[in-house]
Amino acid sequence: MSKSAAELVFQNASIVHPTGVEVGDVAIAAGLIVGVGSGLTGKKIIDATGLHLSSGFVDLHTHLREPGKEEAETIETGSRAAALGGYTAVIAMPNTDPSQDCVAVVNFVRQKATEVGLCEVVPSACITVGRRGEQLVPFAALHEAGVRIFTDDGNGVQDPLIMRRALEYSRDLDIVLAQHCEVSRLTEGAVMHEGECCSALGVPGWPSIAEELMVHRDIELVRLTGAPMHFLHLSTAGSVELVRRAKADGLPVTAEVTPHHLALTDDLLVGFDSVFKVNPPLRTSADIEALKDGVVDGTIDAIATDHAPHAAHTKDVPIDSAPPGMLGLETALGVVNTALDISVVRLVELLSWNPARIAGIQDRHGRPIAVGEVANISVWSSTATWNVSRNEMASKSKNTPYHGMKIRGKVKYTVFNGELVVDNERAVR
Predict the structure, then answer these.
(1) For the residues 231-255, what does the mean pLDDT come to?
(2) Is 366 within the bounds of a domain?
(3) 421 with 326, same domain?
(4) Residue where one domain finishes, among candidates 333, 359, 385
(5) Which of 50, 156, 173, 389 has the greatest number of CB atoms lying within 10 Å of its CB?
(6) CB contact at 8 A, 345 and 367
(7) Within a 10 A sphere around the Cβ of 115, how many other Cβ atoms?
(8) Which domain, by its residues, includes 24?
(9) Alpha-carbon span 100 to 106, nearest angstrom
(10) What share of the chain is helix, strand, coil (3-state, %, to 5)?
(11) DSSP 375-403
(12) CATH code of 75's domain
């Protein structure tokens, strides 16, 4: 294909490779990258001077709510929010209604996404039927249907025997279990982190040990079974240290942290605003520093949004009755880029390369920017600042904790399978 036959060309972009950043042009045609170099031309040319061009972001932890909870989000609106955030793939969590615990529901999610999605929606599946922690799902059938990640997210698998058996199945099938680390008996009635702020407000607290006990238990189950484990949304200094030690022992564990656990502290709940209620809860500044250290030294493998939309009427209630969760897809780059002092290479590793590998979709996402690769690309500014407004969210819900905040880092263009789905900060459909 000649250089001039390209459908889309980004010129003068700062291309992010694992080895560093180089300035050049990237040409796209027929869904693929067809040129990387200089002086490339095509039908549509975008001047990307001063912008970073990388493989598209991959979110390991997205709640799209459909089927069953479409008043909060749909696959269409959630994928639009994802595209605006630079994501070309998201892993859809299984706590839908009905739950993604069977092939029929998984296939529904995947098919609906092919019809309306602005990014790839990769369904996960439950570990136990209905996420009730009692009976394992049909792992083999779901794996045959293309599921790579299994999780009861929203609930931790409380029974250690059930978790052991699940790990043994996962080892034999080459799948990954993703654990929501929470000993639920220790968090009953809790609305925020157990600490000074909680005591001052006189509300039930959520102790760090509730997370850390399960992290410890499952690390030991990984040691016993040899099966891989991915830890969802770590939030405490103790959890980071446990994972650090497990990795030093050579255990096959990975871990993620959310943007909000890197940027927001528990004292934001002093006004009892339920927009800041989340599971696990916002922690202390000391926990944030430990999480940041874990990101820097490689203990934390990925940043995942835990995008959790809720309809306004469900959040606008007393804090003890409000559901936990907050939006994350559209603001992730800016929040992380503002909170962390890391290189753009490490940023892309956390948002794209590592999540794609953990999710098992590295054949098409998190790929090198090179000729012949599928054109799943994000183009973004690391310096542009913007004020977050809940009224401008593409998500169907508006429960962003960053409303009114200024953050640094903005996605300008997103290319999904060669299609420009976000053009100059606007979704094309």
Answers:
(1) 98
(2) no
(3) no
(4) 359
(5) 156
(6) no
(7) 8
(8) 3-53+372-427
(9) 6
(10) 35, 25, 40
(11) --EEEEEEEEEEE--GGG-SSS----TTT
(12) 3.20.20.140
Question: How much is the average pLDDT of 137-150?
Answer: 97
Q: Which of 218, 306, 341, 423 is catalytic?
A: 306
Residues 6+ apart with CB under 8 A from 355: 57, 58, 59, 60, 256, 302, 304, 366
Q: Is 326 among the domain residues?
A: yes
CATH number for the domain spanning 423: value is 2.30.40.10
Scan for tokens 């394992």, then name that residue: 136
Q: How many domains does the chain have?
A: 2
Whole-number pLDDT of residue 198: 84
Global pTM reads: 0.97
Pairing of strands 20-29, 32-37: antiparallel
Three-state SS for 250? coil
Place of tokens 């996402």: 365
- For residue 4, the model assigns a pLDDT of 59
Q: Is 20 among the domain residues?
A: yes
Q: Is residue 1's pLDDT more than 80?
A: no
Query: Is residue 306 flagged as an active site residue?
Result: yes
